[in-house]
């Protein structure tokens, strides 16, 4: 279940390289 949320999150982060604060 968590993987279903992590996969899309990783894809979103890939599109937001500026959000590398964490």
TrEMBL record:
It comes from the Eukaryota. This is Uncharacterized protein. The lineage of its organism: Eukaryota, Viridiplantae, Streptophyta, Embryophyta, Tracheophyta.
């Amino acid at each position: 279940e968590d993987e279903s949320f992590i996969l899309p999150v990783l894809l979103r982060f890939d599109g937001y390289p500026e959000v590398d604060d964490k």
